[in-house]
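Ticket #4471: structure export looks truncated?
Reporter: QA, pipeline team
Priority: medium

Steps to reproduce: submit the single chain below to the structure queue and open the exported record.
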Amino acid sequence: MGGKDLNLWWVDVSEKKQVKVDHAEYGEITNYAWSPDSKWLAYDKNDENNYSVVYLYSVSDRKASAITSSMTNSFAAQFDPEGKYLYYLSDRDFNEVLGNVDFEFANPKTTRVYVVTLSKDEPSPFKAQSDETEIKKAEPGKMGAEENAAAEAKPKSGAKKKEEDKSAADQDKDKEKKEKEKPVEVKVDLEGIQDRAVALPTDPAVIRAFAAAKGFVYYSTAPIQGLAGPIPGEYSAVHAFDLKERKEKTVIGDVQRFALSFDGSKLLYESEGAGRGGAVHTYGIIDAKPTGEPKKVGDGALSLNGMRAEIDPPQEWKNVFNEVWRQERDYFYEASMNGVDWEKLRDKYAQLLPYVSDRYSLTYVLGELIGELSNSHTYVGGGDYPDLHPVNVGLLGVDYELDAASGMYRIKKIYSGENWNPELRSPLTEPGINVKEGDYLLAVNGRTLRGPQNPHELFVNTANETVTLTVNSKAAEDGSRTVQVKPINDEFSLRELNMIMTNRKKVDAASGGKVGYIYLPDMGAPGLNEFVKQYFPQIRKQGLIIDVRYNGGGFVDELIFERLRRILAGMDSARNWQSATVPPNVFNGSMVCITNHYAASDGDLFSYAFKYYKLGPLIGERTWGGVRGIRGNFPLLDGGYITRPEFSRYDLNRKWIIENHGVQPDIVVENRPEQVVSGKDPQLDRAVQEVLKMMQENPKKLAPRPPDLPPYPSGPG
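Actual output as written to the record:
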């Protein structure tokens, strides 16, 4: 068993004591497996280069030996039930994919299953096979074909044949029974074991799960996963590799998670699909051995509808409370718990448990407890709440205003979108709709709209459904027309896009088109996508303003800085082309960054690094100040979750940075509420001013092509 102290232990039942197997330095040891005879333990741990190495531990010698090199990333070892082989996953297949937008590479499919013969005398499961066919020797005086024909023509009595078949079947059963009764003895020759590894003859893939059975290796493959979701056109599946036939066979499609029964005969699968209230999980049990066509989700399905559990809520809440306290105690980034008496705080807040009457109250108590750590990224949520049945409200991506004289609603503003992108669809700007700002919305699906009624009342449960709008260019029924549209369920992205476009136009006008503007909403998938969409089209501007105000954080700042920190090294020239930069996508100009008190987490770190790398001045307000790192959510008994701040950042002078203070800008500029309400943006104005000043003081021009070379000398010298 592995633990938070990064140790791996096994329990000697006979001596009733724990035995330490190994200690890791770079993460817990979570993958381990016993050999069939329980004399060997296979596991993997991370090396200092962050590659995982597979080890074999001898119980008798109490010694671990590396069986893979840190030059490859290898993990998830499994023993063959017959004790002949050890299987593991390893990333050794490289076929770099180059980006379409930037000159970059990725390695999306690198993993295959590898098999190692544990004994040096055991032949490889993929040893060369002869393609020759054995020919039975003919009796003297007979040709082979004649002998075979005679044998086939010789009749057998039905009783004799039946008796022979039964005898053969009994012999097979006896042999199988003896094999089962005979204990497996695993022989391991460590010398040369790394060289005895061979890959299964399958394509490299994204492998999610992996298990071994007698004669088969099972693994699930998944589509390449982008930050915003899986790449279209690929599907997940569970495969079985038949070692005897040396073939890969698909067991079941659309499944990533599975488990084998102890004897390897059955396979439990889980498939996740979209449902009305979120993810819908289907579980089923099927035969593990592939036969014919692959199984489908739903085959062997388990009906879980009748499952009921008796729960004592106060006891469950007590368990959740204690688990939260223990998790923070064991995984908080420093054992001193930021100087608080953690046991005393447990006792203090435990006094409130008798008064907790629902999950809302429990969440409040848990939040107050972990809030005592005065630390960022201490979140609590979820849990067993009463079922809610929210309704959706369709939205048109507009601002309404009431015409007091007529009592009708006028469309004050239509937010433009990118109608080729489903996430940025603006219903009233789609082809053929022809609704303009200033038009009146008179009715929705035949229901008249008049003030003081809220327009959104008529759009309940219409998101992504076709609705009929009655519109007119004047406040009257006369001359009105109808159009059919599909409202959206969220306008946030449209309004954010409007802010970006408004700021870009403002910067463009103030700089005469010389300065670009980039807005990064976060440091996750949306933020990285926005960087790609906005940075490369503006890369030949003389100046750039990067805006990370209200940045929600994430983890991709390093990827962005790899682009921003590129240095112009030269120029490429061709006879009829304009000269190009080396490297191709390098920005050669002046940069500034705007930040504020809502730039959080990786938004903090981006602001810090922009200053640290001296890319330009940081303008605005001090950032949020929360950079403790987490590994996602920790699940609780009732379906809730907490986070455990496990990681903290310090600088090269051994000083903790940013947390509970934030990043101080080089130039402090506040956006006061009344300025924002009136449409002013002093921070953006100052950014334009500063970048223009930098461009004037230190103009950066691309070097023009030099004169043509003179003729080369005609002779030596």
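Status: closed, not a bug. The export was complete when the record was re-opened. Leaving a note from the reviewer for reference: The first helix runs from residue 144 to 153.
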